[in-house]
Specification:
The structure is a homodimer of 165-residue chains. With 165 residues, chain A is mainly α. The first copy, chain A, is built from four helices and two strands. The first copy, chain A, has one domain. In chain A, 67% of the residues lie in helices and 7% in strands. Chain A has a two-stranded antiparallel sheet with strand order 1-2. In chain A, helix 1 runs antiparallel to helix 2 (52-72), helix 2 (52-72) packs antiparallel against helix 3 and helix 3 (81-113) packs antiparallel against helix 4. Residues 161-165 of chain A have low confidence and may be disordered. Chain A binds chain B through residues 44-47, 50-53, 84-85, 87-88, 91, 94-95, 98-107, 109-111, 115, 117-121, 123, 149, 152-153, 156-157, 159, and chain B through 44-47, 50-53, 84-85, 87-88, 91, 94-95, 98-107, 109-111, 115, 117-121, 123, 149, 152-153, 156-157, 159.
Chain lengths: 165, 165
């Protein structure tokens, strides 16, 4: 039965599912963040599509969410080559999550605070609804990063029990 | 003597040294990127210090450069807990490199192309020398990411020979 292994396998599966859910929420919330305002008589629309970093955030989180669910189905009992490959893919997925959160975070900081030296004004006062959704998406993205970190830590520190399910 | 192990140990050490060097170059080049121009009779200075993402890029690359050199001195023959801890620290360092490159990349794209929807104008035509140095630093940063990826791949796929030196 391997009674000692079951709880840890469950921990891995739960971490993976939770990370997938957080990444999916991040992607969906960011993808649905837009706001149209009227400024000086002109209609101005704020939309994630207009900023490459936010598009990458949506695509990256969506892709990781799907890929990590697929990994749930891979039979990879450690120690084996399959288990090491799963770990390697997990590192890549974690890196994509971090890159997505970092680039979207950099742009969001600019949206909130601007950069007077570069002449870039903050825009969040004009489009608060857009910024609030983007902020919620970023929080979900960072939660996904945190959960993925725990997953990786688990796989690396307890290699004999934690990979696959 | 372990003749079979020596070449791989050397590969690991070389990858680590090369990654440390690339990260150090990235930090130094970005840290020395500044340009002063006169615009409409006013002196305007472009400096990495004015942008949080670029400060993080410098700090992150410098920290990783130092930390990975320290790891060279850790005796961590796999399989052992020490080797797994070294791998975990390496994953964290790799993540810092990626986050630094991603956030600085997002801001650099803005500097080059601007974002007309947000009213953020490109600035690289005004401060080309600053942008050229930032671009060189970014390239070094991405080289460091690439080398660290190879290092991690090596550690994960060949765990019994590749960690520590």
């Amino acid at each position: 039965m391997g009674k000692g292994k079951s709880p840890r396998r469950i921990v891995t599966a739960v971490l993976r599912l939770a990370a997938a859910a957080a990444a999916a929420v991040a992607a969906v919330v960011m993808a649905t963040s837009h706001q149209t305002i009227v400024l000086f008589g002109m209609e101005v629309q704020a939309n994630f599509r207009y900023t490459p970093s936010l598009v990458f955030f949506v695509a990256g989180n969506a892709a990781v969410s799907v890929c990590t669910m697929v990994l749930l189905l891979v039979p990879a009992a450690a120690p084996s080559l399959a288990a090491r490959l799963v770990l390697m893919v997990d590192v890549v997925l974690g890196v994509v999550l971090v890159a997505a959160a970092a680039s979207a975070g950099a742009i969001s900081d600019l949206g909130k605070n601007g950069n007077s030296h570069a002449g870039w004004m903050p825009i969040c006062e004009q489009v608060p609804a857009f910024c609030d959704r983007a902020k919620a998406a970023l929080i979900a993205g960072f939660v996904a990063v945190l959960l993925y970190s725990l997953l990786l830590m688990n796989s690396i520190l307890f290699p004999s029990v934690s990979m696959g399910i």
